Amino acid sequence: MASALPFAEADRSAVVDADCIKLTNYFGERDRVGRRLTAGALIDLYAGHGLAASVLLRGTAIAVDTRPNIETVLNQALELTNHGLITLERARLLSDEIDPAGIISQAGEATRLTFFLGSHDHVYGAPAFEVICELLYRRGIAGATVLPGVDGTAHGRRQRAQFFSRNAEVPMMIITVDPGGFLGPVLPELGGLVRRPLLTLEQVRVCKRDGQLINHPEEARGNDDHGFPLRQKLTVYTSEAARHEGQPIHRAIVRELRSAGISGATSHRGIWGFHGDRPPHGDHFPQLGRHVPVITTVIDTADRIPAAFGIIDKLTSERGLVTSETIPVLRAASAHRPRGGRT
Fold it and tell me: CA 328 to CA 299: how far, in whole Å?
């Protein structure tokens, strides 16, 4: 892909520690391929090929596996996402026995960890996602967000919501960004909490933290080594309770981006998480809670990202975490057409 990972070289012969690709499809929730919803068709594809992990969120499908395995589904994923946005990102995949990772710190850069698990996973009788957030909080990690999916795979096995099952194996993701180098030592502890852990590590640039400007996004121009056009991805971590002029910050961001002609933004509400000194909290039913974390993603060209970042900078003047990444795009959505799930 476009840039090297900020990690020590992994043992490529080991199944438990390998370079991987994260394939993300952004699409309209009502988009269809023939008579089938695009969302269901994509997860059927990923499950049929036994990909290591995949999660279906509102308007977004994420799949993670080694490069050869992602390449086996890539053409079909392109065909299924007729009008959507498709991106590729390099990551490091850790599973089963988790050893301390050699995370190389660079100025202004941070590590994003994504933990894939099921809502049915428990640790000592408590939901695993709550226990993992508590551990991250106690170890000094700045924050974490739990995003529930409705369908997906874990270790190649299908997980999906069932309306009449109290123990539905709904896939979930726990996302945390660590700019302080605390993640490496805590990885073995995280891996020991569930029977078969599955997580990824990625490099990101921290642009803002709690209102403080740290870096501007890099310009993403040209193509990567495989000829795919490069785009900039901005990710804003905030909460439903964080307000701008009485409106949740993530809603204000989406509204102003749309008014400015930015091609699209996607917001996902979590059900649990924490930020800073406040202990982990949330609600198992996000439609009822107002203190749940929210992640908003914006992907656009180098010409439009400065305007997008200007809007985000203004709306996160007091709180929130903003990161940026340069990523290859396989197919861009139609200009100015909203993509993905919004809350």
Answer: 11
Please list the pLDDT of the chain residue by residue as tens digits (343 residues): 433 334 333 333 334 668 899 999 999 888 998 889 999 999 999 999 999 999 999 999 999 999 999 999 999 999 998 778 999 999 999 988 887 766 655 556 899 999 999 888 999 899 999 999 999 999 999 899 999 999 999 888 887 765 445 445 789 999 999 987 788 889 999 999 998 899 999 999 999 999 999 999 988 888 888 888 999 999 999 988 888 888 899 999 999 999 998 867 899 999 999 987 889 988 755 444 567 899 999 999 999 999 999 999 999 998 899 999 999 998 765 543 434 444 3
Contact 338, 83 (CB under 8 A): no
Q: Quick one: 64 exposed, middle or buried, by C-beta within 10 A (0-12, 13-18, 19+)?
A: buried
**Residue 319, token pair as written in the block:** 């709180």
Q: What is the DSSP letter of 226?
A: T
Provide the b/e sequence for 275-312 (b: ≥16 CB within 10 Å): beeeebbbbeebeebeebbbbbbbbbbbebbeebbebb
Q: In whole angstroms, give the CA distance from residue 79 to residue 299.
A: 21
Residues in a beta bridge with 146: 174, 272
